[in-house]
Specification:
This protein is α/β, with parallel strands linked by helices. Helices cover 47% and strands 12% of the residues. It has one domain: Alpha-Beta Barrel (TIM Barrel), CATH 3.20.20. The structure holds zinc ion. Zinc ion binds next to loops.
Length: 317
């Protein structure tokens, strides 16, 4: 049992005294809050990187670090409305990228957790792929319009930003991560399946060779129409959303990649529907989903009891 994405909730912050937004830039607090996945929730894996912004922040993007009940986010400049970059050639990874506070915090948290838990738990690192990094560093709309207007520029952006993924991913493995979640949100809610096949799949296949550990790809939203392509990425697993039927998903990937997920967040977990947790866990297990977990980072106001219930329900089956 393990979750590829964040299990942090406000009640776990209260239990540990380690609150958002401090945890994002304080390794000791990040490690302690993340440790509740094992200590309190009963999962066998700990994933300390809670948000989606640490790389973008270290690159120099303008941040809104959020608050106790809100995830951080990247913002455009309030003066110019611009994001950090407009052209791929502007992307320069700073020499001290891994020593900057947002990236160093994740690396130090992994080291602390490895010391604290030894080999008792799996440590799950997290990186973002170039598609998601481009949303943060170029702006989502500015980037997506390139699919139609300038595919060559889009490819150059993906190539430059892939280096960030590799650098940060390798550093997390050195710091103690056993595997990496790779978030790269080319979701069916925004992009066509062919866009995944033509632009991102070759990049993912390359990343699968360059990252020295099992990688769990995470894409939220609808993804059934691209799972056949995702199955050929070379990644170890795909973490998918409850918008996709587990049995259909297992059929499509046909043993070529393991599946993880896909318990519903906004209704089942957030509203604490325990019977529904049990039903969804049983359905996913019966379908052949290898790792049962929430579909994505849990909403911060979720009562952690329903997250723990996933483990209990899975053990009963
Ligand atoms: Zn997600």
């Amino acid at each position: 049992m393990g979750s590829p994405t964040s299990l942090a909730t406000v009640d776990l912050m209260e239990k540990t005294g380690c609150f958002f937004p401090d945890v994002h830039n304080d390794a000791s607090k990040m490690a302690t809050l993340a440790g509740t996945a094992f200590d309190v929730l009963g999962y066998d894996a700990i994933a300390p990187y809670f948000s989606v912004v640490q790389e973008a922040a270290a690159m120099g993007a303008i941040m809104d670090w959020g608050d106790r009940a809100r995830m951080p986010a990247v913002r455009p400049s309030s003066d110019t409305g611009l994001y950090l970059y407009q052209e791929p050639e502007q992307v320069e990874i700073p020499d001290d990228f891994l020593e900057r506070l947002p990236t160093r915090t994740v690396l130090d948290a992994l080291r602390i957790l490895r010391r604290r838990y030894g080999d008792e738990v799996a440590l799950v690192g997290k990186v973002f792929g170039p598609w998601t990094l481009a949303y943060h560093l170029f702006g989502l709309e500015n980037f997506l319009i390139l699919v139609l207007e300038d595919p060559d520029k889009l490819r150059r952006i993906l190539e430059r930003l892939s280096e960030v993924t590799v650098l940060f991913g390798r550093a997390q493995v050195e710091a103690g991560a056993d595997c990496l979640t790779l978030g790269d949100h080319l979701t069916g809610d925004l992009c066509h399946a062919d866009t995944y096949r033509d632009y991102l799949l070759p990049v993912h296949q390359r990343l699968a060779g360059l990252l020295p550990c099992p990688v769990i790809l995470h894409i939220c939203g609808r993804s059934l129409d691209r799972m056949g392509h995702i199955a050929t990425s070379g990644f170890a697993a795909f973490h998918f959303d409850s918008k996709n039927d587990a049995k259909r998903a297992v059929e499509i990937v046909n043993g070529r990649i393991r599946l993880a997920g896909n318990v519903n967040n906004p209704d089942t977990l957030y509203r604490g529907k325990i019977d529904q947790v049990d039903r969804e866990v049983a359905y996913a297990l019966e379908a052949g989903v290898a790792i049962i977990a929430p579909e994505c980072a849990v909403p911060l106001a979720t009562n952690s009891r329903s997250i723990r219930r996933i483990v209990e329900a899975a053990r009963c089956e």
